[in-house]
Amino acid sequence: MLDDPRAARAAFRAGTAASTSGWADGYAQANLVALPREHAYDMLLFAQRNPKPCPLLEVTDAGAWHTRTADADLRTDLPRYRVWRGGELVDEPTDVRAHWRPDLVTFLIGCSFSFEAALVEAGIGLRHVEEGVTVPMYRTNRPCAPAGAFSGPLVVTMRPVRADLVAAAVTATARVPQVHGAPVHIGSPESLGVVLEKPDYGDPVTVRDGEVPVFWACGVTPQAALAASGVPFAITHAPGHMFITDIRESALRTG
Amino acid sequence: MLDDPRAARAAFRAGTAASTSGWADGYAQANLVALPREHAYDMLLFAQRNPKPCPLLEVTDAGAWHTRTADADLRTDLPRYRVWRGGELVDEPTDVRAHWRPDLVTFLIGCSFSFEAALVEAGIGLRHVEEGVTVPMYRTNRPCAPAGAFSGPLVVTMRPVRADLVAAAVTATARVPQVHGAPVHIGSPESLGVVLEKPDYGDPVTVRDGEVPVFWACGVTPQAALAASGVPFAITHAPGHMFITDIRESALRTG
């Protein structure tokens, strides 16, 4: 793991294909979705209508592989990508220059890696980190506001929080609206259509006595909508293999 | 003036053509921009890249004249509209049903009428209201981030604030990010390229000894970019003749 975002991206550009969790501590990481221009309007509208699961950090001009968020090449500087055709995963390369097209618009979407730093600073432990697993994610019974080709359920992450710390978890994450912001639901998993022991993505974690399950909007939401849309072509990051920006996490905080 | 938003919209639908300042106190008002779908992507991208002057409350589906923000008809329920062809103002009707097209996408953009309520609640007087004039607006030397056909300077409003209340003005408006949020510039008009006595829109106001000029991003910004773009067709509200929503202003506040 490298602490300097520029050095981290250089390592990924040179072929290192690791999860970015723990890399470049203090710098914001982003989800990447690249779509043909003809489908980009629907994605932009989907993000506008569903800002909690889809907090946009940047939307590039068509064909551009540079970004205002870092001195980087978006085609090479992520550790691993996924290439999609008609909703099917067709390749997981570490470089997408061969797949790039001049009509691709890239969306950089806030990632909960940044948001978890705010929780830890507020004194709230992360159970999935303690247990060495991936955060549990659930497809809820709450539909997103549809936009053109894109629709689907709100996907959430869950972190157990001690009852006396739930308010602190709310205020700490409310201050990072560009990385999902305040929880969308606290307690009562059944009214969200969720069974805690059975996440749809990631792994279940222990919820101890005196703890409440707290649910935040998740960046998997737009990816699930994308996969279901049947859009003919898209490139995304591979799960956990995010784009590391030069934006300090502290710069994303409001108030 | 009517206090109920539904009654206010019914009056406008019946032909009343008044400025909405002071109507439906406590309910959010919105700027309206309707554009053909082929130009809507650039406007949506312009708003994403310039969220302070262009805080989106809603973007409709093409052709839709209903809105999630109110039980209303967007073609009839504003007191007055402007119709634009090739950047030229061609009509100022009180009803745009005859101009409506099935490809029009409507943008509802937060309006400073709501934002001023937060200032008044914080004990900060509004000089332009005291002096009975329109708030002064200035084209600054700060360019917006361009997006396709749309580019131009950031336009700001200015309100003089007593030096000991400037911090309160910041915190009060930081809590309403969907209506322009915190100031973009405080003091030093010259470094913004602004001469206080010579606003580009609206009227000059008195700045007293012990007061500091405080500048907020202004919803005229996207309208100026629209007028300069040469887009072949657009409909907007007429200045001061806003769309009154059913959204309580308090619902737009964070924290």
UniProtKB/TrEMBL annotation, chains A, B:
Belongs to the D-glutamate cyclase family. GO terms for molecular function: lyase activity. This is Putative hydro-lyase CLV40_112185. Its EC number is 4.2.1.-. Keywords: Lyase. It comes from Actinokineospora auranticolor. It holds the Pfam family D-Glu_cyclase. It comes from the Bacteria. InterPro entries: D-Glu_cyclase, Putative_hydro-lyase, UPF0317. Coiled coil: none annotated.
